[in-house]
């Protein structure tokens, strides 16, 4: 499959993506654990069906030391015993924040309170921005049919 747009060749896309990438860098520099960020990015991308982002975040998580078992169980995290309560809270927030059309009311108070038990305000901010960021990037990649499979960990750092 060929991409509909080459983000790096198009001047408008390149300019816009420069800002997107700086937002991603700010998230990487936040106090939210890198492993949690990769799990959340992967789960949002799975829900949205973004092959390019699933490719990227699976490989980034593995390069950061994430185990194959945990990566394979992200899609079924509720039934898996390999995630901490904090990670479960982050994944639940990510799901409700991604499925806003399905959840009608967005992120519920109970889900927010559960996340707030495990994360301070800076980390909650990073989680919210990460979920929003991933949803935007997923849509960019899906609309333009960005292919998956060739990403190498660290490629955009």
Automatic annotation (TrEMBL):
Residues 16-96 form the Carboxymuconolactone decarboxylase-like domain. InterPro entries: AhpD-like, AhpD_core, CMD-like. Pfam families: CMD (PF02627). It comes from the Bacteria. NCBIfam families: ahpD_dom. This is Carboxymuconolactone decarboxylase family protein. It comes from Streptomyces mirabilis.
């Amino acid at each position: 499959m060929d991409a509909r747009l080459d983000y790096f060749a198009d001047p408008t896309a390149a300019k816009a993506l420069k800002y997107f990438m700086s937002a991603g860098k700010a998230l990487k520099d936040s106090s939210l654990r890198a492993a949690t960020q990769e799990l959340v990015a992967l789960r949002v991308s799975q829900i949205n069906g973004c092959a390019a982002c699933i490719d990227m975040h699976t490989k980034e998580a593995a390069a950061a030391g994430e185990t194959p078992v945990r990566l394979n169980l992200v899609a079924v995290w509720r039934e898996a015993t390999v995630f901490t309560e904090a990670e479960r809270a982050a994944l639940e927030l990510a799901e409700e924040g991604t499925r806003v059309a399905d959840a009608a009311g967005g992120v519920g108070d109970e889900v927010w309170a559960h996340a707030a038990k495990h994360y301070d305000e800076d980390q909650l901010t990073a989680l919210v921005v990460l979920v929003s960021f991933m949803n935007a990037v997923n849509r960019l990649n899906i609309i333009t049919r960005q292919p998956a499979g060739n990403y190498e960990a660290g490629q955009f750092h």
